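Subject: mismatched residue count in predicted assembly?

I count 301 residues in my input, but I want to confirm that the predicted structure covers every chain. Input:
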Amino acid sequence: MSFFCNGPVALVAQHDEHNGQGWRVIQFQEVTKTFGSRTAVNKVSFNIEKPQMVGIIGRSGAGKSTLLRMINRLTPASAGQILFDGRDILSLKGGMMRRWQRDCAMVFQQFNLVPRLDVVTNVMLGRLNGHGTLKSLFNIFSQEDVNSALGALDRLGIAQEATKRAEELSGGQQQRVAIARALMQDPHMILADEPIASLDPMNAKIVMDALREIHERDNKIVICNLHTLDTARTYCDRVIGMRDGFLVFDGAPEALTTAVAREIYGADESFNEAATSTAIDAGQSGSRESAGAMTPAAAAV
Ligand SMILES: Nc1ncnc2c1ncn2[C@@H]1O[C@H](COP(=O)(O)OP(=O)(O)OP(=O)(O)O)[C@@H](O)[C@H]1O
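Triage response: the counts match. Full output below for your records.
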């Protein structure tokens, strides 16, 4: 299904919170965020009914980051509901809220690692929410934590960097460490806020391949804010377009034509898709840096 409209949409299907296959549905119901007089996210409604890789696109200021940050409660919503398994996650407090935040791991544009800590410790920080207060306070990790962190790094193809300080790594490597840290949370979903915006095309491809592989192999939802249409088309099963806080497009990547993109971006006839391109060539694998056990996922899309 795809649709396009110029105003608020409310397409919340009425159904059980389970999709009949034991998989838990996420429902966004008129989710809204206002900052003073500005409405950053305006009555956004949609459901995710199966593990999908969802790309959110739109021009700067459209509300993409705010929407993502509301999901894991980094930004409080002003109105609406986000239901997971029928439970409104926007009203969770204390330990329940922290557990939810562990369930939806965030990956940020600027990686958010601790620069002077070694890579493996940075990855293990993903476990902190699951530890008791004392253990968390002193960063006490078990041998099992160390083994899991090394396993996650190996999966991301950077186990050999485990003992280096995070600040010694390239941007692409740091983002893979951040993804390994997210995996340590064993989350239901990964929320990636412009994960490749600071990376060159080769590293952008490695990072997007990694996210796609996690989606495919672990059957996890990945929601990814993206600035580039070609990346959304190549990697995502579903694209959501935002404009001025409204959800204005929700459909398959094939439906994301240049004309549709022009509407989402509020651009005129001079709109040039190349301006949003990262020039990721999904087929260019010969010279690229190894991503370890990654499957070049773009080929599967
Ligand atoms: N903490 C804040 N205080 C006030 N206004 C904010 C705050 N965060 C976001 N906004 C405003 O909300 C609107 C949506 O911002 P948001 O960062 O969600 O957009 P975006 O689509 O992610 O943009 P970009 O692609 O540039 O990151 C913008 O007008 C922004 O200025």
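The pocket of adenosine-5'-triphosphate is lined by residues 35, 38, 40, 58, 60-66 (CB under 6 Å). Marking this ticket as 'not a bug'.
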